[in-house]
Amino acid sequence: MSDRTLPARPLSGFRLFGPATEVRMTVQQPATDTAGVAQLFLSHRTAMVRLAVLLVDDLHTAEDVVQDAYGKLYAGWDRLRDPDAAVGYLRTAVVNGCRSVLRRRRTARLFIPPRQVDVPAADTGMLLAEEHRGVLAALKRLPRRQREVLVLRFWSELSEAQIADALGISRGTVKSSASRGLTALSALLDTTEG
Amino acid sequence: MDTRRVEQRLREALAARADQVRPEDLRPAPVPPTPAARTAHRPHRFLLALAAPAALTVVLAITVGSWVLARQPSDGGPAPAYPPQAAGAPTSAEPDTAEPSIEVQGLPSESDTVAPVIVTAAPRTTTVPGTSRRATVPAFTVSGGTTDTADRIRRLLSKHVTGLVDGYRNRADLRTLQITAAAIEPWEDYLSVRLDTTDDFGGPHGTDTTTALVMDTRTGSPATAGDLFTDITAVDEIMRTALAGRPGPDRPTEIDELTMRSGTGIAPVWYPADDGLHWVLDECAHTPCVTGPAEAIVAWPELAAHLRP
What we know:
The complex is a heterodimer.
Chain A: E1 5-6, E2 25-26, H1 30-56, H2 59-75, H3 86-111, H4 130-140, H5 144-154, H6 160-167, H7 171-193
Antiparallel strand pairs in A: 1-2
Chain B: H1 3-19, H2 35-40, H3 45-71, E1 94-95, E2 102-105, E3 118-127, E4 134-143, H4 147-166, E5 176-187, E6 190-200, E7 207-216, E8 221-222, H5 225-228, H6 232-244, E9 269-273, E10 276-281, H7 283-286, E11 294-298, H8 300-303
Parallel strand pairs in B: 4-5
Antiparallel strand pairs in B: 1-3, 2-3, 3-4, 5-6, 6-7, 7-8, 9-10, 10-11
């Protein structure tokens, strides 16, 4: 493996949060790349789709987001110095992709207001327990950042520092978003469940 | 409710939802190749194994697509929602007394014997489906071009307006809806129709949104950015810079994600016109609302290097 360090700059076609100087990249040999790519794909794809489902609540969209995130990551793979950091980059790309999807939905809603009929998602054949549905419905009503922080904290089990890195926000913001999110969630559940 | 109890319930709910996604439920997807793998010209055995079913899928899709197209009428489009003589206006529409608001003559087609496409728009009223509200919509009249081309353009316009109105179906709280043809702009072999929509649901102010339809007057088909430009990425950057440099507030944080390339990023409303390429961005749709819609226009000479011959 070559240790030639490239100037710090974001991955091509891959938007990173936080200061660009934190990104370090080197050139790797192709043989290592191919194996690493396949390994990363096979070992993390399901988890990334699950994360995306929790953020966009739609399996097919989640799959598309994740595939796109892998594509973007691999496009800059030869400049990735630390393969161990690839999962972090991937997670950030998935969160960003989910944000884009939600923005596009919001834009679409400006043109086409949502249908009044509540159609269940195609992947919810296996029904959730009533109490889980209540919690997820309340979660969907939270502001985007609080929702993202809570998902990364309580499903991905990330630390505050990891969440801050993934979302490009400070640890203090992570802490306050989690606190406010939990408070709001509690209030919503109290309201809906009496 | 106790915070620990909320955390516990949240953990359980997220886990339950995530567990609904099983690996066997995921669509088969190939491992995206790295740049190095792409240039090595030595496909990995794993990729080769995935290539065969993918190729079969493409062949099947083309076959089925051809069969479906062959069964459709020669114009290739769906049945018109409205009578062809006045695209965009429902049969029950009552014409306003106003004269046609816009009349634009498109540029001639390649054949000199074909009359140039002419599109006119006049305001009509129609009922919003599922409500008692009346909406003002443009009714388009298309003439010139070949019969097929004019029909296709008429159907595209009809479908677009119908879709906009249908988006308000069953919205009992709708108070007023007005869709106007803000511009009908010919440029080269293309014709752009910009529609401005204003709705009012009783809030402090109505909501304005813009859509645009770009059509190829030679074929009557919708045009994509790839039809106009050789390098969409370069044009995107020029337009983003123009949009960011417009007078007003700070550069929107998400502006870097705007692209005319379909299926990626955030799509701005774009259309070519005589004075240049237009980008309209409803900032309230993408970023915290600071102003109304922003528009950038870049003259053609600045984009000349990226135009398709």
